[in-house]
Amino acid sequence: MVTYANVNGLRIGYDLIGDSGRTWVLTLGGRFTRQTPGLPELARALAAQGDRVLLWDRPNTGESDVCLAGPSEPRMQADTLAALLTELDLGPAVLAGATVGSHVSLLTAAHHPEVVAGLSLWWISGGVMGLMILANVYYTPAITAAWTTGMEAVAALPDWAPLLDQNERNRSHVLEQDRETFLATMQQWMAAYCPRPGEQVPGLPDELARAITAPALVFRGGASDPFHPRATSEALAGLLPNARLVEPPWGDREYLDRQAERESAGGLFVRWPLLATAMREWAGETLA
What we know:
By secondary structure, the protein is an alpha/beta fold. It folds into 2 domains: 3-127 and 199-286, Rossmann fold; 140-190, no CATH class. The protein has 13 helices and 8 strands. The protein has helices spanning 39-47, 73-88, 100-111, 128-148, 151-155, 161-165, 168-175, 179-191, 206-210, 230-239, 254-260, 262-265, 276-286; strands at 3-7, 10-17, 23-27, 52-56, 93-98, 116-122, 216-219, 243-246. The chain has an 8-stranded mixed β-sheet with strand order 1-2-4-3-5-6-7-8, with helices on both faces. The longest helix has 21 residues, at 128-148. The protein is globular. The model has no long low-confidence stretch (mean pLDDT 96). This is Alpha/beta hydrolase.
C-alpha cells in the first residue's frame, strides 16, 4: 500500500521507516525511485538504532506526480521536500542525499532552514563534465522528442513512460502540455546545470552555501570519479561553515566499479548501507 501526501498541489509517494527518534530523509538523483536497491537498506540500517527515515519519490520520479514548473528541477524538488516535511510534521530532519539528491538537500537547507537539522552528503555531482552530462541525460531526450515530434513522443521516452503508465494524472498532465511552454521549461532546467563561477552546486551560489549553518557530514569524492569529483566535495566542505569532511567507507573507484557491475551486482547503490555507521556516529556527536 502506497502512502501519499498532498503538498504544493502535488501527490507525493513516501514511506516512513521507524516511528520515533531522529528523522532522516534520503534523497536520490536521476529518475531513481525510493525503492531503488540500496536505498531501503540504508534506511533500515539508520532506523535500526531507534531513528526514523523518510523515503520519498521526488516529483517526476516513481509514484509521485509530475511537476513541470519552477526555476530548476532540483529547486522545485527542494521546495516540495520542505512542504512534505512540514505536512508530515517531521522537521527539522537530517537531509541525506547523493548525486543530484545532494543538490536537493542543499537547496532545501538554503531556502527552508527551519526544516533542516543537518546534512549528510556523498557522490556530490559537480565539475564541468559532470554537470554537462547531467544536463544532457536529464533533458536532451525530452527536448528533442518534443521539438521534432510532439508530446506523445515525450510520453514514450524510457525516463517518462514509467511515470505515466502507473499514474493517469501524470499522463494527462504531460500530454496536455503546450509544446512551446514545455520546451521553454526543459531548456531553462537544462541551463540551470551550466557551471558558473561562484557556484560549486548549480543554483546554490557560494555565498548562500556559506550561510547554511546546519551541521554537515561530507563524504569525500573519489579522485577517479569524473561525475562526482573529489574537488567538488572538498570545495563544498570548505564553504559550509559547520561541515566535517570524511573518507567514505569504500575505495576510490566505488562509483566506477558499481557502474561497471550494476547489472551483475544489483545496482549502483547496493553498498550504501556501509555509510550508516559513520552517519549515526556523526549525528550522535554533532546533533542535539
